[in-house]
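User: Can you predict the 3D structure for this chain?
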Amino acid sequence: ASGTDDASGTDDEHTEETHEEENREKLQEREQKVVELEQQCKRNQLEIDQMKNHTNDQSVLILTKEGEISAKDQELIKIRDEKMDIEHKMEILQASLEDERNKVTEMWNLIGISWCTSRCLSGLM
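Assistant: Here is the predicted structure, written as structure tokens:
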């Protein structure tokens, strides 16, 4: 009876060793999985940081471009205002030129009338 107890004990020890070995293998697999997941997390964090940097760079670029556009808009407004001023001055100058032409035409007419009148009068004398 004690012989079977010894054999049963040996079987229990063997089974226990087998379980212990399986548990060690599972533990190693899980530790390996943890290492892989930690590495993946680090890679993901690095990617996220790179994307944040890229996003920040893009934001700075956008702000810079918006500033440039705003400056160009202000410049365009100034140029349009100057154009309107010039057009207004041109209208005034055009009206003044027209007045001067009318005066010159009137003077030539008076000179012509005066010349004709003096010629006609001298012919009568």
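The CA atoms of residues 54 and 69 lie 22 Å apart. The mean pLDDT is 89.
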